[in-house]
Amino acid sequence: MKSGKNRLLGAHMSVxxxxxxxxDRGVSIGCTAIQIFTGFNNRxxxxxxxxxxxxxxxxxxxxxxxxxxxxxxxxxLASPDPVIASKSFASMLDEVARAGQLSLPYLIIHPxxxxxxxxxxxxxxxxxxxxxxxxxxxxxxxxxxxxTTSGQGTVLGSTFEHLAEIIANIKDQKRIGICFDTCHxxxxxxxIRTPEAYEKTFSEFDRIAGLDYLKVFHLNDSKHDIGTKKxxxxxxxxxxxxxxxxxxxxxxxxxxxxxxxxxxxxxxFNLLEEDKKNLAVLRALIK
Length: 287
Description:
The protein has 287 residues and is an alpha/beta fold. It has a single domain, classed as Divalent-metal-dependent TIM barrel enzymes (TIM Barrel). It has helices at residues 19-28, 51-60, 82-101, 119-136, 160-168, 182-188, 195-208, 242-250, 273-285, and strands spanning 9-12, 33-36, 66-70, 106-109, 143-147, 176-181, 214-219, 221-222, 233-234, 260-262. α3 links the parallel β3 (66-70) and β4 (106-109). It starts with 8 loop residues before the first strand and ends with a helix.
């Protein structure tokens, strides 16, 4: 277990120039945890990762404690549209394969949007397609993490019940987990700003979904208030969550070994000035 300031803290890093460059960028600002896209974040498929980049990534990976991936934003495993569903499934097969090539432990996905088919149908489709995906990648060690969402539109994952129901219907539960996004959880209606509210939310999470499934945190403040169902990230301490939420989280012994990464706005993915500032603010909150 990690304690004090020796924690798994970092940020999402660009892979521009190759996946290995994400580690260079993260190390330059003191990240011990890094999240990446393994390819394009807005296309169904990405070009193959070259052997040179795989080799460079492998040589550099020991410079940080953990690297994991987020899938592309087009995937919708809850879609009732057979064309979108087919493209999403093929894209996920590619995403898992790429994460496996890089020996990444986690691949984070948004549960998806039911597009009017209803929450029950959407949850059923997500679980069904994840089971198919896991069956077809049964030689992979990549664990798929369902991300909590703000609940805008028909998006699933804004309640702990959504996540719990999906997980309950996964056959191989060693291949599934949860990524807890602070901004998303807050704007979906869960409060973590006071000790009482914080404990209530995490007690509810544990009772419904289970803390054992919580594998990653996205640390993002929110541009919008609680329950607004708007997904707009803000710099740490500059939004409606405020510093108190992050102080509570960073000093919760239950999560000392859980990686926590920023997804806050950047003006330059090479200079990373905002990430430096946000990480300094977070580290200062650790008692």
